[in-house]
Amino acid sequence: MLKSTVDQQFRTPNGKVIGVMRRNFKMDFVPILHSFLEDSAWNKEKKISDIIINPIGGFYMLRVEDEIIDTDESFTEIAKMYQAQGWEKI
Hints:
It is built from one helix and six strands. The protein is mainly β. Strand 1 (2-11) and strand 2 form a beta hairpin. The longest helix has 13 residues, at 72-84.
């Protein structure tokens, strides 16, 4: 099993980052750029947009496609839902 950390950024339509959520996973496959991940916090699978490999530490850091939301209040609601699924706010 490979240790992986997945980050999901939340942005406004004009590009301002409102927040980031993170979850640690154990994967039984090597992640590939532009492949898809599934998680119970998401309505549909998300595309992997960035991969950082740490061969010494033996883990991958992944970023999935950003989600566009309207307001900080929207992020607060989403963060609560993500946290209930094992994600942390960073």
